[in-house]
Queue: 3 jobs
Job 1
Amino acid sequence: MQAQYPADFRREMGCTEAELLMWLPGAVNGHALRLMPNSAEVDIGAGRLELAWRALPPRRIALLHMPRLAIAFHFEGIGQAERQAFMRYFDLYMQRGGG
């Protein structure tokens, strides 16, 4: 988890698109979610979050192959405190594996 979340940022996630699409409804914590090809919109209060993703080549470590997505986050009309609260839940929900 980050201390602050700017209105625009990018990150890599170690998952497939199918996994992301399966997890997103829970990760947005009841906010309205609209899915489109390679993107999604989330209504948060009076603003919204736009997500866009693309598959990256898998990360290879010895014989291990881990899928990766590049994901862009763009918040519109959402202040720092509201972004922080949303992303805190989002990041905790998306956390997988050994803590």
Job 2
Amino acid sequence: MISDLAKEGDEICLRIYRCSAQMLGRTIAILCDVVDPDLVVIGGIYMRSASLIEAELLRVLREEALVPCKIVPAALGEQVGDYAALSV
């Protein structure tokens, strides 16, 4: 519902996505600085809402990461959670 409202331009929902993208960008920046991966694969909300998240996430990542890394969507798409649960 929040995604749908954000795509329609609802300002509160857009702020929720902007804040989520900023926190995700900061978290990935820390991961990149500590582990120095070549790329980070993201599924879930990123897959479903990339149009609402990607620009802000990449902006924060460029600002805060000391080492650059590439962000790619999970190839498994919506099934990534199913495979993650099965692997446990």
Job 3
Amino acid sequence: MKYDRNKAIAYANKYALSKNPEYYYFGGIGGDCTNFISQCLHAGGFDMVYDDFEGWFYVNPNFRSASWTGVEFLRNFLLQADAAPNGEIVGRDELQEGDIIFLNNGLRYYHSLFVSKIENGQIYVCAHSFAAQNRNLNDYKFFKSEFVHIKD
């Protein structure tokens, strides 16, 4: 399976400031950022992985994997899964459009961002919880960031 970054980016831009009615919005109960990232990856062509403990899937709000909606769970899934989607930590200069950024507050990873555009050395992201479309990464305040390149 080849990751179609253009489809994922188109999805991110379409739903950055709104909600896809096919998915529950978790904004009021812990945040929707990782749910949105998972939707983008799925729109880019990745099949869901139906495994209760090590999977990545969404059926409904009550039947989904922790990695579909949880920041640290998705990060761990992407970096450790044998199944796609998976990724690898890269440097800022290796980041590509369609990749993921995880923000850390010094204690834990608390927010995930979708890289929608890279232009003139600037990184722009789409996100949920705090709706953002092509927002400059420099606008965010965080202790550290981790760049995860999604493998094709």
